[in-house]
Amino acid sequence: MPNYHSHILTSNHSHIIGRTDPITGDRVKENDRVVFCTTCKSCFLKESWEYMKEVHCEQGSTLEDIPVAYSNFVVKKEKYSPIYQLKTHSIYTTIFSPVFYFLVIYGVTINNSNRSLMFLAATAFGVMLGTITSLIIKKLKLLTVKSVCLFKNRIEIKRQSFFFDDVEQIKFQREMESFISSNGQYNTTSRTPTLFIYLKNGMRKDISFPTKDYKTVDLFLKGLVQVSNTIRISFYSEQSQEYIVMKQIAENSKSNITVRQPVQLLDDTLYPHQF
After folding, report:
1. pTM of the model
2. What range does the domain containing 26 cover?
């Protein structure tokens, strides 16, 4: 008798049917016999579980019952404090401020005989006052929007919510690029980091992270560590110091975290990092 719990899927398990077996890549179908890892809740075909020698997430425990469909209504009722939260300023604030001042200044001076001069003056003062206003708004952290919120049961990013019951894996990736500037100097800089969110229904969502800032991203990565006992987390960075931090996190954690070997390791010469 097998040392694990297996289940035959029926039409009542529509929330499981359609998931992808992580080993074979096959879609799980009705009447398939499947096994669920207790740690990450991943769904495997019986043959895949035996192929892995009945071990996943460094353990062999399996769920005795098929997970029930997670109710979004229940989720909304649950109160979770965010593990990590990133607030950014809307681009409309930066655009609106100069336009607002331009319209005010130009409207006041529109009756002036030299309209061309007034137009140029309104443009110049509009840009100057708008820039100052935008800087004050950012400094005082006014008019911010929540770009990323990480909870113990979900991640909300750019107005999209992903509940971890529906997520197979989250991959963080930062690539670096090198170039020669106009003065002939060799520089390296970071590309915008990307989150790859692999869903259990086989779909993948690619989302650009709202910032390149190393200190901000470092806090987010440490937040992901706190949910890595629920879902698989994969880190990849070509920035040398960030890669070292990721390696240390993975080595000191017993959770489901992997750090992929980068094809290159560079420092950011344009935007020095601080961890």
Report:
1. 0.55
2. 1-69
Domain annotation covers residue 83: no
Residue 81 three-state SS: coil
The sign of the torsion formed by the CA atoms of 129, 212, 229, 24 equals positive
* Phi, psi (degrees; rounded to nearest 5) at 251: -70, -30
Q: Is residue 204 part of a domain?
A: yes
Is residue 174 domain-shared with residue 251, that is, in the same domain? Answer: yes
Q: Are residues 8 and 26 in the same domain?
A: yes
The total number of structural domains that make up the chain: 3
**Nearest one of 139, 134, 159, 164 to 147, comparing CA atoms:** 159
pLDDT digits (tens, 9 = 90+) for 141-197: 444 455 788 988 889 887 788 888 889 999 999 999 988 888 888 888 899 999 999
Whether 189 and 269 have beta carbons less than 8 Å apart is answered as yes
253 shares its domain with 154: yes
Same-domain check for residues 180 and 222: yes
Q: Identify whether 238 is part of a domain.
A: yes
Q: Which letter does DSSP use for residue 125 in this model?
A: H
Inside any domain, residue 82: no
- Residues 137 and 200 sit within 8 Å (Cβ to Cβ): no
**Digit-coded pLDDT (tens) for 31-80:** 999 999 888 788 999 999 999 899 888 888 999 988 876 544 444 445 56
pLDDT tens profile 44-54: 999 999 998 99
- Asked whether residue 153 falls in the same domain as residue 135, the answer is no
The pLDDT, as a whole number, for residue 271 is 67
Output the pLDDT for position 73.
Answer: 43
Q: Compute the distance between CA of residue 154 and CA of residue 157 in angstroms, rounded to an integer.
A: 10
Bridge-partner residues for 20, per DSSP?
27
Q: CA 119 to CA 110: how far, in whole Å?
A: 8
